[in-house]
Structures are given as C-alpha cells and as structure tokens.
Write a structure and sequence with these properties.
The protein is an alpha/beta fold. It has helices at 6-32, 53-68, 100-108, 119-130, 161-169, 184-190, 195-198, 212-218, 241-257, 288-296, 307-318, 346-354, 369-375, 380-383, 393-399, 413-448, and strands at 35-36, 39-46, 77-84, 88-92, 145-152, 172-179, 199-202, 220-221, 227-234, 265-272, 276-280, 330-337, 358-364, 384-387.
C-alpha cells in the first residue's frame, strides 16, 4: 500500500484546524449576537379556497424568513406547521426537523388544501396534537415558551372564541395575523393580551413579509439582558384622571415587553408633579404580575410639573445602590410628560447622560418637543416620541424598543444569519479544496503504482 504523502497530511490537518476554528468562532459570535429563547412555535396557516396559489406561496416565504431568524435545534427553538381549510393537516411536527435547512425545505413543499375555513378546528388540533409531547412539544416550563402564529384571510366557519381561550389557558401565546378582508373581531377573539402586540393586519399577502422583522424581534433574546428600568411619570393636574389611567396601561404595555426576573429586568416607578414620589424602587417586584398590579395602584398626584427636579431624583436616588440599582447593569430611564416643565431641565438632563443612562422621552398633548429632545439619548430620533392624543400612546409603546443588551446591536438576528451563512460558505469552500486535493493525491498514487 502506498503511504500517504506527508505534505497531504499536513494540508489536511491545516484544513481541519481551520474548519474547527471557524465553527468555534461561529459559536462564540452567536453567543454574543442573537439567541432566540427556547420556544415551541406552531404556525397555523389558512389555505382555504379564498387564498390563491400565488398568495399561499407568499405565506410560505414569510414562514421561511421568520424561521431564518430563529435558533433552530432540539434544545433551542422547535417549529411545527399546521395547514387548514375545511380539514386540518399536520405538515411539520415539532419533533421532525432539527436543522433550519431541512425545516425551510419542508415549508416550501406545503400545498394548499383549497376548501373552507375551519379556524376553530385548526386551533383545537394544535392544542390537542401539534403541541402534544408525542409530536415533539416539551413539558410545560417557565423556561420554554409555547407560541401559535395564525395566518388567515377570511371569516371562520366555526367558533374560535372558546377554543382559543382553552389554548391560552394551556399556556399557549397566540398571535393572529389577518390579511385582506379578514374578520377583525375573530382575530381579537383568538389573540393573547395585549391585543396591540398580538394582532396584526396587512392589506394583502404581497406585503405579509413586512411582519418578518416583528417576529424575529419577538423571539430574539439577548445573551446579557440584565437591566434596571425606571419610569418617571408626570402626574401634574393637566394630565387629568382619565388620561392618568391610560398612562398606567401604557406603562404595563412596556413591562409586558421586558424579561422581568430577579436576574434580568428590574423596574422602578417614580411619579412627579410639584414634588417627587417614589412609587416603588428597583427590585421590589421580580415578576410581571406583581409589577403591573403595583402600577395599577398608583394614585394620581395632580399638581405642578417639575421635570428637572424629577430628573435629579432619578440620578441621585432611583439609580443608586441604596434604592436597588445593580452595579454593572445597564440603566434605562423612561420619562413621560404632557406639558412644559416649570423648572430648568438642562443640567439634570445632561447629568443623566454623564452617568451613562439610556434615556427615553415620551410627550403627549402640550409637551414641548425641544425639552423631550434634551432629555432623550442619542440618536435623538430613536429615543423621543410625541403624540397629541393620550389614546395614541399604544402606538408609542409598540415603537419603543428598549435595547437591553450591552454588546453592540446583539439582538440583530439578521447579523447572525448573515454570519452563519458566511461560515457555511467557508466550510463548503474548505470541503471543495479537500475534495480537489484528494483527487490530485489519487492521481499521484495511480502514477506511483
């Protein structure tokens, strides 16, 4: 037998080492960029006769793009797909595909059923079958989310309200996406609270892809998500009691977006008018229910508007260790006001920046935009918001995305996907080199023989 040339062994070892380095680098960078929370996700897609074949193809593209941004794996995110019309078909089980490539390929092969619209039947199937352990769903746990994403364009021919409630009671978070002439009332009956976060509408299937980013962000968790968040709320008399209730709902909308726990997000609440009152400090409540209950109990102060004094309080007290702030953890201040400050805010606003706090400024009604910009962190356009109407604050809650990671842009799932593709391409190139060299060695061996 002809011995393998030493040069080939050296090259082979170098190629193997390079491949190992690339894989390790990919893993390290992935840990610092984007990691989706362990989640069992089931897409429930309407393929009734009202959905044209070309439109169904667009739904599949949407699914594939959302999947591209997920961390697919048996210990990470598992994905299932339920296809329905008058009947229900389990296209992909949560246990079937362990790789992203295999999963996306399976999605591209799904065919429409083209009959009626039995949405209730599909939700019941998901509850009984798709989310069962036999189909690959994991045992119910606080560490693993259960999510159903329903895409439909019509009015259900059966009841959805009761079965959707049963699914939500079982711990399944439901997102409802409506297209075209969909019945909006049934979307609301299906979706989880808050409806503003869980109900989406697009005019046609051709633009459904615009929802891709929302769902990538919804399932993208940062590796370092510990943060201290303090709300600074204007309780002056110009707000009025009925609007103050809307403000409290708005605060709770934002709390819903945070990963509240002892080791991750802590929330404090300060109300100000002519004086400043701490409603509760950071770390007092470490779960969303207790936090939201405490927000609801906040009593309206109903006096002046001393925003500068409130900002000084934020720096000197709210973010101090004595009031529960944690050392080395990102600090975020969210200031809400409905009018011009009755004291000077410049020095206090500057001080928050010098301390490294990330400041968001939200104004309603008679709030002064120049003051909001002075409070807000850079880039100002991403950190200050204004609306003339208290009822429109829901839209601000949607737009206000608190980046709770300390690494640069760690939640940008697209960055990770692009990086993974580069690593895969590099590995493919190395494999081709190895194949080419193997052929050359074989030729040399033949000549020697």
């Amino acid at each position: 037998m002809t011995p393998t040339p030493p040069l080939f062994l050296l090259l082979l070892s170098l190629i193997g080492a390079q491949a190992t380095v690339d894989v390790r680098t990919a893993a390290a960078m992935a840990a610092g960029l984007c990691k989706t929370r362990p989640t069992d996700i089931v897409f429930i897609i309407d393929s009734s006769r009202s959905v044209r074949p070309s439109e169904f193809e667009q739904v599949k593209v949407f699914l594939a793009k959302v999947i591209e941004g997920l961390d697919i794996g048996p210990n990470a995110t598992r994905v299932g797909v339920v296809n329905y019309a008058s009947r229900v078909k389990n296209e992909v089980s949560l246990k079937t595909y362990r790789t992203k490539a295999g999963l996306i390929k399976a999605v591209t092969k799904i065919e429409p059923l083209s009959t009626g619209t039995m949405t209730g039947l599909a939700i019941q199937f998901a509850l009984n079958v798709a989310f069962s352990e036999g189909e690959g769903a994991r045992v119910k746990s606080p560490d693993i989310s259960k999510v159903a994403i329903i895409v439909t364009d019509g009015r259900p021919q059966d009841n959805v309200k009761d079965v959707a409630q049963r699914a939500r009671d079982a711990g399944i978070e439901i997102f409802a996406i409506g297209v075209g002439r969909v019945d909006m009332s049934t979307l609301k009956q299906m979706a989880s609270d808050s409806l503003d976060d869980h109900v989406d509408y697009v005019e046609s299937y051709s633009v459904i892809e615009k929802l891709t980013k929302k769902f990538k962000e919804a399932f993208c968790a940062c590796s370092n998500s510990a943060t201290d968040v303090v709300f600074l709320i204007d309780g002056s008399k110009s707000v009025r009691p009925e609007n103050f209730e809307l403000v409290k709902k708005w605060i709770n909308q934002i709390i819903d977006k945070l990963d509240v726990s002892e080791s991750k997000a802590h929330v404090g609440l300060v109300q100000y008018s002519s004086s400043v009152k701490q409603e509760f400090p950071l770390g007092r409540y470490n779960n969303k229910k207790d936090l939201k209950d405490a927000v609801k109990k906040m009593a309206y102060m109903e006096r002046g508007t001393m925003t500068g004094q409130a900002l000084h309080y934020l720096t000197d007290n709210s973010f101090s260790a004595g009031q529960g702030a944690r050392p080395g953890v990102a600090k975020v201040g969210i200031v809400f006001t409905d009018g011009r400050s009755q004291d000077y805010i410049g020095d206090a606003a500057k001080k928050t920046k010098e301390h490294g706090f990330k400041m968001y400024a939200v104004g309603v009604g008679n709030a002064v935009e120049d003051e909001l910009k002075e409070i807000a962190s850079e880039p100002t356009g991403e950190h200050y918001f204004y609306t003339a109407d208290f009822k429109a604050m829901t839209q601000i809650a949607k737009k206000l995305q608190i980046n709770i990671c300390q690494e640069e842009d760690p939640c940008e799932c697209d960055s990770l996907v692009k990086f993974q593709k580069k690593v895969e391409e590099a590995l493919q190139a190395l494999t081709k080199k190895l194949d080419s060299m193997s052929k050359r060695i074989a030729l040399l061996e033949n000549k020697i023989v």
